[in-house]
Amino acid sequence: MILDQLESLGCYRGISKSLDIAIDYLRKTDLAALAIGSHQVDGDRVLANVMTYETKRPEEGKLEAHRKYIDIQVVLEGEERCFCAPLSLTTELGAFDEAKDFGLYDGPRLTTMRLASDNFAIFFPQDAHAPALDLDGKVAVRKVVMKVAV
User: Fold this and answer.
1) What is the pTM of this model?
2) Could you give the CA distance from residue 22 to residue 46 in angstroms, rounded to a whole number?
């Protein structure tokens, strides 16, 4: 898991070619102008998923993880809390959905972070994370989640 300021995003270039494509896209695109939905950036290897929602109470949040994709989460409007923990410390809740690359997990919430328009988080397949949670009450959030193939 990486949590950093948006101005430092370029420092993470070089980890993988697909991650570089996603970083360049985030740095060069007018993210506020993107329509809600999924946008192909590099076929199915790099996608930009733009969404809006209201945050939910922290106790409602479930840890999730992905096997095929790295998430780069950038809040464009609003702010949210996110919990995360090593996937190795969690227990899978039901079958992993291979088609959606999505699984829910129960486990400790070892790290708490604030995601807002000045920072970003990168979650790798070994990082269970529970995003979209209230900080100080419900707020509307607009977010882009880059899906980067591992």
Assistant:
1) 0.95
2) 6
